[in-house]
Amino acid sequence: MKRNPITLITAAVxxxxxxxxxFTFQVRQTEVAVVTTFGEYSRSITEPGLKxxxxxxxxxxxxxxxxxxxxxxxxxxxxxxxxxxxxxAVYAGWRVADPRVFLESFNGDMAKAEQKLxxxxxxxxxxxxxxxxxxxxxxxxxxxxxxxxxxxEMLDAVQAQVKGTYGITVDAMGIKQLGLxxxxxxxxxxxxxAERQQLIATYQSEGDRDAKNIRADADAKANKILAEAxxxxxxVLGEADAKASEYYEAFRKxxxxxxxxxxxxxxxxxxxxxxxxxxxxxxPPFNLLNGAAGDSGSSLKK
Length: 302
Description:
The protein is an alpha+beta fold. Among the domains are: 5-64, no CATH class; 69-180, Tetrahydropterin Synthase, Chain A, CATH 3.30.479. The protein contains seven helices and nine strands. Strands 6, 7, 8 and 9 form a four-stranded antiparallel sheet that branches. Strand 2 (31-37) and strand 3 form a beta hairpin. Helix 5 (182-253) packs across helix 6. The protein starts with a helix and ends with a helix.
């Protein structure tokens, strides 16, 4: 019986694929793997690519996600150094660092790994928070807060326990949320209110002090200016009195000149604005104009 070449080629391709599936496996970019031979550790694979193996049940491949896993601890109460209760939730980012140790510790179960990590984080958190006061975590003064230091110590404590022991590494850890039990909430609010009032009193005291300094400086400058102005005024008045004394002496010697000048000034002041005056020809000081009119008439006649 003659067989179809297409059928033979298809069968050959399927056989090759089947053999490849039995003797090779693919490790993705985001994975690490462990190969066991008859249940015993054979080798770890941390580089992606196509890898070779013996078919099951001789060898078995365990593949683990090597991406950063996010873990969030639920709220639980922790006591500070000064015996204050805090409700704290923490988070952690972890990954598989040693696939062989991870497989031997948790049989490759990610849920079991997180359960163990939760226990380690809880103990580390309680131990670290217990070395700090309540004000290091909750305060209106930013300079008193020690979040960065506390989170670093928590991360160091967790890394020291899991590194090389469970085949995982914790890359990040921190405090996600802080809460207060109802029993101490009112106490905390009163303390925060007292701290705010203290800040207000401090700012008011500094403002009053600065205001007094500004007013004192302004008063000193004003007194200086007034003193200088008073001295200058006295100087001007003295010079004016001296000039007036000279004029008075001249008028004393020639009183008719003084009277004449006063009359001229009176005429000037009365004629400064447009006005109609009905006066007799001999009404002082306008009687001076009689002579002036006569002189001009004489000059005209000439």
